[in-house]
Amino acid sequence: MGEVKNAEEFERILDSLAEGIGHDERVLANKVGAEAFKKIMQPKVPVSTKTFTGKTVHLRDSLVTEQHPNGSVAVGFTAKGHKGYIGRFQNDGWDVRDRNGIQHSHVPGKHFWEESVKEAKPILATVMTNAIKQAMDKKVR
């Protein structure tokens, strides 16, 4: 059996790898994934031809990422301007009703969220795997 040179360094590397992926690495990988998803989704979000003035922004411009304490990162629309509410109608569609509550027609949804998820799955897997791999490589060095 051979002798391990620099045994202390080797032990440190093994200890850091045994810890696995920590909270910071998980947050970093999720942030990278969320930003990649946001880039894929942004062009798919319908944009109004109406010119907004003041603080009102387009639905496409209100797409944000939010980090949670458990390490997850969510992508959604800002709550400030009720854009999530509008985004859901645009995505899922809605039934048109008059002032008496009588249903007249159905406006079909654009399903931009589902299309974005479908397109992003393989890309996110690659991007997040690379981020985790880089974090693990830093632990080894």
Could you provide a short overview of the structure?
This protein has helices at about 5-20, 25-40, 85-90, 110-140, and strands spanning about 65, 75, 95, 105-110.
Descriptive account of the structure:
The structure is a single chain. With 141 residues, the chain is α+β, with helices and mostly antiparallel strands. The chain has one domain (7-140). Helices cover 50% and strands 15% of the residues. The chain contains four helices and four strands. The strands form two sheets. It has a two-stranded antiparallel ribbon. The protein has a two-stranded antiparallel ribbon with strand order 3-4. Helix 2 (23-41) runs antiparallel to helix 4 (112-140). It comes from Ligilactobacillus murinus. This is Phage tail protein.
Number of DSSP-assigned strands: 4
Low-pLDDT segments: none
Total of domains: 1
**Which structural class is indicated by helix and strand composition?**
alpha+beta
Q: Estimate the global geometry from the Cα principal axes.
A: elongated
Q: Assess the beta-strand content as a share of residues.
A: 5-15%
Element string (H = helix, E = strand): HHEEHEEH
N→C terminal distance: 25 Å
Output the radius of gyration: 23 Å
Largest sheet: 2 strands, antiparallel
DSSP helical segment count: 4
Question: In which order are the strands of the major sheet placed?
Answer: 1-2
Portion in helices: 40-55%
